Structure formats: C-alpha cells, structure tokens
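Title: Prediction job returns without error message
Component: structure pipeline
Severity: low
Priority: P3
Assignee: unassigned

Description:
Job completed but the reporter wants confirmation the result is attached to the right record. Sequence as submitted:
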Amino acid sequence: MKHQANLASAVQVTDLNSDDCRTPIISLDNVGVTYPNGTVALSPLSLKIEDDAVTVLLGPSGAGKSSLLRSMNLLVKPTVGTISVRVGGMLDNSRAVREHRRETAMVFQQHQLIGRQSALQNVLTGRLGKHSFWRTLLPLGPDDRRIALECLDRVSLFEKALVRCDSMSGGQQQRVGIARALAQQPRMILADEPVASLDPASSRRVLSLLQQICKEDRIPVVVSLHQLEYAREFADRIIGLSGGHVVFDDKPEKLTEPVLKKIYGA
C-alpha cells in the first residue's frame, strides 16, 4: 500500500502562509571559497534559495558547483562572506551549524551507503539526528522505523527494505539515499552530482523523484549537474558557473547559446 498521499508523519512541510516563508530558506552574502593551496574555487557571490523550487548548479568539472553546494551546509567553509538561514539565523557558530546540518539533507554522487546493511537500516541513519547521542546507542523505535518505511515506499523501494544495499543497482542505491534524506525530515535537500554514475533511465528517475519531493512537500532542492539536458528538463532555476564565477542565474528557457559559451567556453 502506497503512502504518497499522506506523508505528513514522514516529512515536515513548511506552512507557506507563515511570515517565515517570506524569508529565503538560505541566503549567501558575498560568499567565496579559496582552498589552502591558493586555488580560488568560488569567487564571492550573493544568492538566495527560495521555497518550492529545484535549483540546478550547472557547469563543467572544476567550475565551482560542489564548492558552492557544500558551502550551503558548511561542509566546505567559506573563506569570505556570511550565510544565514530562515530557521536559526546567521551560521556563525558551531551550534547554529550543527542545527542547520540536522535540517539539511545531502544526497551524494557515490551514495554513501553501508553496503552490508539493508535499505531500511541505511534509511534509519537519517533519523539519528533527531535523537540524543546516548539514545542513538540503542535500536531506534517503532516510530522511526515507520517513518523510514514510509520513505522507502515514497521512492518505490518498500519491497527492498530488508535487502542489502550492496546487492542493489546504482539507481536503487541512489533512491535509498533519497529515502534517507527524506527520513531526516529536512528543510532543504542538497544533491551533489547525484546522477553522475547512473544510466539515462535511472538518472531521470532520480531527478524526477527529487523534483516531485520539492513540489509536493515544498522542500527546496539544490542539485549540482554537468548534464545540460537534465538541467533544462528538471530545473526551475539554473545557476551557471565557470571558473568559480557565476555567469548565469535565470530560468532554463533563458539558457541561450551565448550563455552556454560563457559556461562551457567556445
């Protein structure tokens, strides 16, 4: 039995009528990233991420996509600039950063699953941030298991709940990763090249799931991609990067040939 019609217990949906929703989910102000070896990965930029939109970071390898994406939850710490979020304010101390990371789910290119464990066990790790450290030393309870199963059902893997992840296809593993992200009950999802290692059919299924979650649950999704056709197909907004600079920020239909030359070169 599908649970897609009512996932309120599994995903916390923001009240769009609240005053908070006039504030961007996250704001970057003059944020730049320079690595210790002197490489400028991201030139200073300012942007805001709004509700109910799929934002694609588009560009070739080395353009700064991952640096920008990972700076949004401070897995990459900005060298300059400030980041603030709707719930929690300025991310200028360790406590605020920890809380923001609990509210921000990540979907990785290489899945980051524990292969010897089942899909259900992997999705349950998305629930750990909801409990104290000492509580996580014990098996999680029935409420957490119910949420995890609902999330697996959401990505059409309910029947695979007890199957080891290392026996699944790459596309199935990535869907387990999305279910784990959902189980976290996030306010925002960041997906770092989530389809780079997948075939076209699996890629479209994964991106369709992320788009569906964004629209149905009103969770903003930021995805880094290098495939132009997927950006045009699934994005509400495209941020084009080249050499650490933002060279485009607009709707997919504005992505003209001259713009593509700015992103990818002549």
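Comment from assignee: result matches the submitted record. Residues 1-19 have pLDDT under 50 and may be disordered.
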